[in-house]
Amino acid sequence: MDVERKQSWLEKHNPNIPDAVIQWIGVAMSLFSLATACFTLGGVLQSSKFAWVVLILSVFGLIGPIAFLRDNLKWRAATCFFAFVVFVLSLMILMELLF
User: Fold this and answer.
1) pTM for the full predicted model
2) What is the CA radius of gyration of the chain?
């Protein structure tokens, strides 16, 4: 049986961007968020009200790239969105600490 693999929405609209690139972007965002939260909670700088939220979300965010192992567009979209939210929260922490 030769079964054709369905193309995801991303593959249809952006054939030049492989899934692995998007997966590693999600991993990098999650690691950056986790490092920011740990750095903040570690007391190197002042504590932040968002730090605990980002730390918890970052731990779950690291699990997110597992969704890329599944061939499911909804999982992939949710993972990218989740990583982006955690990334934005981390940037908010950095801006709060720097200014």
Assistant:
1) 0.46
2) 16
